[in-house]
Specification:
The chain has helices at about 1-15, 55-65, 65-70, 85-90, 105-115, 120-125, 140-145, 170-185; strands at about 40-45, 50, 95-100, 130-135, 150-155, 160-165. By secondary structure, the chain is α+β, with helices and mostly antiparallel strands. It has two domains: about 20-70, no CATH class; about 85-185, Glutaredoxin. The strands form two sheets. Strands 4-3-5-6 form a four-stranded mixed sheet, sandwiched between helices. The protein has a two-stranded antiparallel ribbon with strand order 1-2. The protein is elongated, with a radius of gyration of 18 Å.
Length: about 190
């Protein structure tokens, strides 16, 4: 149990958001698109680690990263580190807070990548977003009725009350539910 708490503290201290940030966001080279990327040959682009198949491709990318940016694939969003930070930012909006409860599993990593979909850019402009470590039985998990991770919760920042729990990272679902949450908040 103590080891789990240490891991949690390290992840949160590093901005759990992005525990995945040091790992490459891509599996295939963005320059030679048919080649597998090697995690040891990387550069940083927009705060994310990008891997390449060789140093020549890395140098080509660094010379003109915008040329290859679309070939990197979905990237995790930058998130606030706590629910309280998201609630505070949302109150200034006013807009809903969107909280991603995550663990260190592959499914959570997949969710973070799915949330990087460009289709969701407009959605993320309308919410205050935080990614937090899911701890079964924690006060936060109890408050929002979360029993497993990953899951997204849209929260009314004025009442700190759940508006909707989203269990699928599908862009269409997230867009619809964020729009519904905004409508609920503007009717107040």
């Amino acid at each position: 149990m103590k080891a789990l708490r240490v891991v949690a503290a390290v992840l949160l201290g590093a901005g759990f958001a992005w525990a995945f940030q040091g790992k490459p966001v891509n599996d295939m080279c963005p320059v030679k698109t048919g080649e597998a990327a090697k995690p040891g040959i990387t550069t940083t682009f927009n705060g994310k680690t990008v891997a390449f198949c060789c140093n020549n491709c890395k140098n080509t990318f660094e010379a003109d990263p915008q040329r290859f940016a679309s070939k990197i694939g979905p990237q995790p969003r930058t998130a606030l580190n706590s629910i309280s930070d998201a609630l505070k930012a949302a109150q200034e909006g006013p807009k809903p807070a969107m909280i991603l409860f995550m663990d260190a599993g592959a499914k959570s990593k997949m969710w973070s990548e799915m949330l990087g979909d460009k289709e969701l850019d407009e959605v993320f402009a309308k919410v205050a977003y935080a990614a937090v470590l899911f701890e079964k039985g924690s006060d936060e998990a109890k408050k929002y009725s979360i029993s497993t991770a990953p899951v997204l919760v849209l929260v009314d920042p004025t009442e700190n009350k759940s508006l909707k729990t989203i269990t699928s990272p599908a862009a269409k679902t997230i867009k619809t539910e964020v729009e519904n949450a905004i409508k609920k908040l503007t009717k107040k």
